[in-house]
Every structure is written in C-alpha cells, then in structure tokens.
Design goal:
243 residues; alpha+beta; 6-stranded antiparallel β-sheet; 5-stranded mixed β-sheet; 4 helices; 22% helix
C-alpha cells in the first residue's frame, strides 16, 4: 500500500465519530491531504545527494462553502494535516527549513470540491507541541509533568474504574517525552507491553484500565526566522531506558 493510502487512512480516522455526519457529501478532508502531498512532491528541491528541501508553509484555498465546512473541525483538522505532512516528508526523506504551518483560506473564484494549494519555504527554528488524545479529546501538554488518573488531584481526570487515582505521569521537556507508571493497582501498558518507565515516541499508545492515551507531537514554527535552513529535528526519548 502506498504512502498516500496510509495518509488517507490516518485522516479518515479523524473525521469519524463526531465529525462523520459533517462530511457525508461534498469535499472530503482526504482530498486536502492528497493536494498537500502533491505539493510536497512537486516543490521538493534536491540540494545535494542527501538533502532534499520541501516547502513548510502551506495555504489551502477552498470554495466558501467548503471552507466553512472544513473550518468547523477547528484545530483538529489542522493538527492532523500537519502531522501527516510531517510523516510523508519523513518517509520521502524530505527536510524542512523551519516549522510546518498550514492555513485554510476561502477563494470565491473556486467551485465547490476544488482544492488549490500554494506553498513556500520559510526558514526558522522548530518547536514540538505535545498533545495527548484521550477518549476523543485532545489535551495539550503545557507543563513538564502531567499526571493522569481517576482522582481529582490528577492533572487530567479520567472516569475509568480500572484506573488509580494517580495512575501514570507524562514528562515533557519541549522536545522529548517519557511515561512512568505511578505504582498503579492494575498497571499500565505501552504499545501492548508492560510499562514501568519508558521514553515515548510520536503516536505511542499508553493503556490504563480501559482507556487509551495517544501521544501526538506536532512540529510548529518557533522563534525568529533564520537565514540558514536547518532540518527540523525529530523528537526522541529521554530520561530512562526504552522497554
């Protein structure tokens, strides 16, 4: 199965559930994904044998009605598009001059169902925004230590009888993440294996009780623009061994 099929499957999961009824007809989010993928592949420039620079700023032009429909998903759609662009670039060994930014704009001249994408390379530093997905909701990680549990003293409270009051903690230093079980009664799992203490990678899944927690790491532009392009570093693990 090709990379485009993988990207489309990933985005289809996002529009299921709460957003499924919104997109029964008309423009589908996967069509935006396909347009972004084509833009990346078309504009990627070979600078040397091991360096291919792709655009990192995108404007997605839509008809007014399509724009209104897609905008109803809010940040969820933009976050997922950003993640999938980063994944496609990694698969194709593209590099970025700075953080990825995707904007939706309406163009009255476009017919319903038509997508146009413009792009450019913008140099700048990159920061990684960490988000936890739990039971269909997204919780940005805004502190170095986030406790998840059933009790009110937890930073993120989950209503699950199989979870301890303070069950697991997520440590985050702005670039890398780690998960630690806090001596919970029923234990924790990371990607199906017992979790005690382990570094986390993007899209890692932690299971506590009957609840799944997914870590998303989204590349965003940060700081002032620079004159010399630098590859956006991929986040990795820290603070302890992998399981």
């Amino acid at each position: 199965m090709g990379i485009l099929d993988n990207l489309e499957r990933g985005l289809e999961r996002v529009v299921n559930g709460a957003f499924a009824k919104t997109f029964r007809s008309g423009l589908q989010p996967v069509e935006i994904t396909a347009a972004l993928r084509r833009e990346l592949d078309t504009k990627a420039a070979v600078l040397s044998r091991d360096r291919i620079i792709a655009p990192n700023r995108f404007i997605v032009l839509l008809s007014p009605s399509d724009f209104e429909q897609m905008s109803s998903m809010g940040d969820t759609l933009i976050d997922e598009l950003t993640r999938l662009v980063a994944k496609h670039a990694a698969t194709q060994h593209y590099q970025f001059a700075g953080g990825i930014k995707i904007s939706l704009k309406q163009d009255p001249a476009l017919a319903v169902g038509v997508v146009q994408v413009t792009s450019e390379n913008v140099s700048g530093s990159v920061t990684w925004v960490a988000v936890l997905e739990i039971a269909g909701k997204r919780y940005p990680i805004n502190k170095s230590r986030t406790i998840i549990g059933r009790g009110t003293e937890a930073d993120i409270t989950v209503d699950d009888s199989g979870i301890s009051r303070k069950h697991v903690e997520i440590l985050w230093d702005g670039n890398r993440a780690q998960a630690n079980d806090l001596g919970s009664t029923n234990g924790s799992k990371l990607n199906g294996h017992k979790l005690v203490s382990s570094a986390l990678e993007a899209d890692s899944i932690i299971t506590i009780g009957q609840t799944s927690i997914t870590l998303r790491l989204l590349p965003q532009a940060a700081g002032e623009e620079t004159t010399s392009p630098a590859q956006a570093p991929a986040p990795g693990g820290f603070w302890g061994p992998r399981e």
